[in-house]
Amino acid sequence: MRYISKNIEETKQIAQKFLDTVECIGGGYVVALQGELGSGKTAFTQEAGKILGVIESMRSPTFVIEKIYKIDWQGFKNLIHIDAYRLEKASELLHIGWGEIIKESENLILIEWPENVASIVPENAKRIYFKFINENTREIKYEN
């Protein structure tokens, strides 16, 4: 699927369409968000969080690497937002418990900059690609 978003409401609609494809199956559900700086990864995650019932303010966890939000949505209990931008190697993600996080079926994991830790991102991770078009426009693509 390929979408063009020109505002936050359109991004929210795209997030909803993507979430409609998500199923709670064995193990954590990993969504790899790929795109350059400013391409909309965090905005997408924030809108997905609102849809999932997150009430606290969601900011990019660039410096803390990981934020966990409690949710109760289709069998998922945790929305885990990871930002691997500052990580230089995959082993750094292992130190925060990545191995356990991805095993737990109640975890919906959205990871920004997955290419920085590509060797430990599961092959079955869903991938969403973001592209900065201009100040108000983003391209968002994913496969069902």
CATH superfamily: P-loop containing nucleotide triphosphate hydrolases
For the largest beta sheet, what order do the strands appear in spatially?
A: 1-7-6-2-5-4-3
The separation of the N and C termini measures 7 Å
Question: What is the residue-averaged pLDDT?
Answer: 95
Look at the structure and give the CATH class.
Alpha Beta
What shape does the CA trace take?
Answer: globular
Strand content: 25-35%
Order of helices and strands: EHEHEEHHEEE
Please state the structural category: alpha/beta
Largest sheet: 7 strands, mixed
The domain tally reads 1
Structure summary:
This protein has 144 residues and is of the alpha/beta class.
Protein described:
This protein has 144 residues and is of the alpha/beta class. The chain has one domain: P-loop containing nucleotide triphosphate hydrolases (Rossmann fold, 3-Layer(aba) Sandwich), CATH 3.40.50. The protein contains 4 helices and 7 strands. It has a 7-stranded mixed beta sheet, covered by helices on one side. α1 crosses α2.
Fold topology:
Blueprint lengths: L1 E4 L2 H12 L9 E6 L6 H11 L14 E8 L2 E8 L6 H5 L3 H4 L5 E6 L13 E9 L2 E6 L2
Helix pairs in contact: 1-2
Question: How would you describe this structure in keywords?
Answer:
144 residues, seven-stranded mixed sheet, 4 helices, Rossmann fold, single chain, globular, alpha/beta, 22% helix
